């Protein structure tokens, strides 16, 4: 059957018809496959900050539409470049964060069009005021590795797909319509607009343009290089420096190389490119990125040697199906869609940041050569050490997990300060957030037996970070046993987070036989006790003279105050390695349960935390939209009341996640919110990475089979699961009764089957005994 594309039948309508007639057409995800289950629009609305565009698992290119509003000095809603509430598209750029709380990237923006040339983007509220175009969600389609939309004002149908280093565009123009493209290097996704330090455009031949951009955004001095290849020669071109009002023009007949090869440099570069009237109405564009040079970007184009868009889309879909098939999940809708979408979002970062020849750019902004590993960046460590990285040790290949660790170690070796990354992207350090949370990522991988990195080199990098005095009040922490608030802001949070990181160093050192290092850091891991006020029952900031800071208000939260993006109500349960110590401070199991209930059941004013955009997803004082609260619902298990955890995770899943664009209650934070959902849906959660234990909540999937990196399989089955049957009545592991309320990592990696029998009423005896409770550094009191 032949279908002719005309302006009367938009591209997306044709694709929908053909998909029905021919399942799997043009590389689309096969019905019933994990990729087909993903709703990439979850989180693109509200404060989720995800993007809907095309990328590969952990890929270097994230090719996605940008809808952000310019010149309004407020970019938080557009941290990923796209917000589902918008009705116009600015263009399609090649780098994006998924779910970050800070905006940046948006490199190499292209926008196809027909008709009159407009060199400014224009305004959403004024159609045709610039090259921006209106669109409708009814004419928008996306799935893992693919995005398509109709640009109404520009009269172009756009499709996007990607390999790891190359983005591929397919534009379809109307009959007899000229094909034109705007390239705008002024644009970026960054607070308060573009932060270009310098950029360059260079015409290499009639079909190739290369360039670079250096920015001073979140990561100062970030350099990115690119090569753009068109499927047909330019008939005319116009390179502009809008800052200096300089224009370079060149014209060529189709198929001929321009006589001149102009280069334009400056801070406000753009290009207007024309391609005549394509006989088939199509123009394809390949864009390769490089952290090293324009020539390297050209070399990276060879990753995608042809122009078969449908074949590339199929390869992207296959890559995603292979990755998502690490878990075979069975559940009614919308749970199955939400689970696979969470798994998808968990596989977007850390992202590859290395050329095909192994070269990359490190935190010293110099070029280095990777040997035996693939360099990755975009480590949102304050968020992702909690659940994302532990999830990846179960669902990502061992080589990929080793690449992450080797990338962190390499970054430490190249760091001007000799420490591990704090929050890095494109190889550079942003110094965002607190802690030295690369440490638990490495320790957790080592404790779980991930091979392929030098453990001695890793431990050296970890202790170097933990002992770097100028960072975050560490010199005072090492001297006093806590971070003093009169010397360092957010001191209470820093103290307890440093203590957890120290514990993970001790765990790894102990397993390596380094008893001296282990003893030092086990002692430091108890420093959280130095900021716990038994009188109030809260973690509090102390002065260097020893007294707690007064006056004290447990709901107080401000940037730079005693706590990081939270209040005492969110931070006072942060000693995940030693919850028996917390129970002791509070006065016993019953007191912990009562305190946890007080957190969740508190009646608070709607505006109590309104001034802190990160404190979202509130259930009482519990803030699921931000990471410090993520382990809290699982603390009931440590007090022998797993049934209360089962109630709380049911409450959280029902209220904080939905199968719709605003379906995340807070920033996805490079996959952490999604990883929490994925773990919780399976039925357990890694409260203390490095412990090799997972605290059991309750399952939300009827059945899930994990295909593990060691090629074994572990199945979780929930017999009798329903809306009414939300409690665990009993559990068996490989046919034997499981009476403890946690799993060990080796339980999973050995393969086998975990069966939960669900019921409508709580079993208050299951997991009650102290011997059934999860690990803590301080033994449970007897």
TrEMBL record:
Enzyme class, first EC level, given as a word: hydrolase
Keyword Signal: yes
Domain Glycosyl hydrolase family 92 N-terminal: 38-290
Domain Glycosyl hydrolase family: residue ranges: 297-759
Signal peptide stretch: 1-28
Enzyme Commission number: 3.2.1.-
Domain of life: Bacteria
InterPro entries: 6-hairpin_glycosidase_sf (IPR008928), GH-type_carb-bd (IPR014718), GH92_a_mannosidase_put (IPR005887), GH92_N (IPR041371), Glyco_hydro_92 (IPR012939), PNGase (IPR050883)
NCBIfam families in the cross-refs: aman2_put
Protein name, UniProt field: GH92 family glycosyl hydrolase
Organism: Massilia agri
């Amino acid at each position: 059957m032949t279908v002719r594309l005309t302006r009367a039948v938009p591209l997306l309508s044709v694709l929908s018809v053909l998909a029905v007639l021919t399942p799997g057409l043009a590389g689309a995800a096969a019905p019933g496959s994990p990729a087909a289950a993903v709703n990439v629009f979850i989180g693109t609305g509200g404060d989720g900050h995800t993007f809907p565009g095309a990328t590969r698992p952990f890929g270097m290119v994230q090719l996605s539409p940008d809808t952000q509003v310019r010149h309004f000095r407020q970019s938080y809603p557009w941290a990923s470049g796209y917000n589902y509430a918008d009705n116009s598209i600015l263009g399609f750029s090649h780098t994006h964060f998924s779910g970050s709380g800070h905006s940046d990237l948006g490199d190499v923006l292209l926008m196809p069009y027909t008709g009159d040339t407009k060199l400014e983007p224009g305004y959403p509220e004024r159609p045709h005021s610039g090259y921006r175009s209106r669109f409708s969600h009814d004419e928008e389609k996306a799935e893992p590795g693919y995005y398509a939309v109709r640009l109404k004002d520009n009269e172009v149908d756009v499709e996007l797909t990607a390999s790891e280093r190359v983005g591929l565009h397919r534009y379809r123009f109307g009959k007899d319509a000229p094909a034109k493209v705007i390239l705008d290097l002024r644009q970026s996704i960054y607070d308060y607009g573009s932060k270009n330090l310098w950029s360059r455009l260079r015409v290499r031949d009639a079909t190739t343009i290369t360039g670079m951009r250096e920015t001073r955004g979140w990561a100062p001095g970030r350099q990115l290089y690119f090569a753009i290849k068109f499927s047909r020669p330019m008939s005319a071109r116009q390179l502009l420096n809008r800052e200096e009002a300089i224009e370079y023009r060149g014209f060529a007949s189709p198929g001929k190389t321009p006589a001149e090869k102009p280069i334009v440099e400056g801070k406000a570069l753009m290009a207007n490119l024309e391609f005549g009237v394509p006989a088939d109405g199509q123009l394809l564009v390949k864009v390769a990125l490089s952290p090293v040079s324009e020539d390297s970007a050209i070399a990276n184009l060879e990753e995608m040697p042809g122009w078969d868009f449908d074949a590339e889309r199929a390869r992207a879909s296959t890559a995603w199906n292979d990755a998502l098939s690490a878990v075979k999940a069975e559940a009614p809708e919308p749970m199955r869609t939400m689970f696979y979408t969470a798994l998808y979002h968990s596989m977007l970062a850390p992202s590859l940041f290395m050329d095909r020849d192994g070269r990359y750019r490190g935190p010293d902004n110099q070029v280095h050569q990777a040997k035996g590993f693939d360099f990755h960046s975009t480590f949102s460590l304050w968020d992702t050490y909690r659940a994302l990285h532990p999830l990846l040790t179960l669902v990502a290949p061992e080589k990929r997990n080793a690449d992450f660790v080797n990338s962190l170690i390499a970054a430490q070796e190249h760091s001007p300060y000799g420490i591990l990354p704090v929050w890095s992207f494109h190889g550079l350090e942003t110094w965002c957030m607190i802690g030295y949370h690369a440490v638990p990522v490495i320790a957790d991988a080592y404790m779980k037996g991930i091979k392929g990195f030098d453990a001695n080199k890793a431990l050296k990098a970890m202790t170097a970070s933990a002992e770097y005095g100028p960072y975050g009040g560490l010199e005072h922490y090492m001297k006093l046993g806590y971070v003093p608030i009169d010397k360092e802001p957010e001191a209470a949070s820093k103290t307890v987070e440093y203590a957890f990181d120290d514990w993970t160093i001790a765990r790894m050192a102990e397993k390596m036989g380094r008893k001296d290092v282990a003893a030092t850091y086990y002692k430091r891991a108890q420093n959280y006790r130095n900021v716990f006020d038994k009188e109030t029952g809260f973690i509090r900031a102390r002065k260097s003279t020893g007294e707690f800071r007064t006056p004290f208000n447990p709901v107080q939260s401000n940037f730079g105050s005693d706590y990081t993006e939270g209040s005492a109500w969110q931070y006072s349960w942060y000693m995940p390695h030693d919850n028996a110590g917390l129970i002791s401070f509070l006065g016993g199991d019953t007191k912990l349960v009562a305190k946890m209930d007080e957190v969740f059941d508190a009646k608070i004013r709607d505006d109590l935390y309104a001034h802190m955009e990160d404190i979202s997803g509130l259930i009482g004082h519990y803030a699921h939209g931000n990471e410090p609260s993520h382990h809290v619902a699982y603390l009931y298990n440590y007090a022998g009341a797993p049934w209360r955890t089962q109630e709380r995770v049911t409450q959280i899943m029902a209220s904080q996640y939905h199968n719709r664009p605003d379906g995340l209650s807070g920033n996805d934070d490079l996959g952490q919110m999604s990883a929490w959902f994925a773990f919780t849906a399976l039925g357990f959660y890694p409260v203390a990475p490095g412990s090799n234990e997972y605290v059991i909540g309750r399952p939300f999937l009827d059945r899930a089979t994990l295909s593990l990196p060691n090629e074994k399989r572990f199945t979780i089955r929930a017999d009798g699961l329903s809306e009414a049957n939300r409690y665990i009545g009993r559990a068996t592991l490989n046919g034997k009764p499981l009476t403890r309320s946690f799993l060990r990592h080796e339980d999973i990696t050995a393969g086998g089957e975990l069966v939960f029998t669900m019921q409508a009423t709580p079993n208050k005896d299951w997991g009650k005994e102290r011997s059934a409770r999860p690990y803590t550094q301080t033994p449970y009191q007897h």
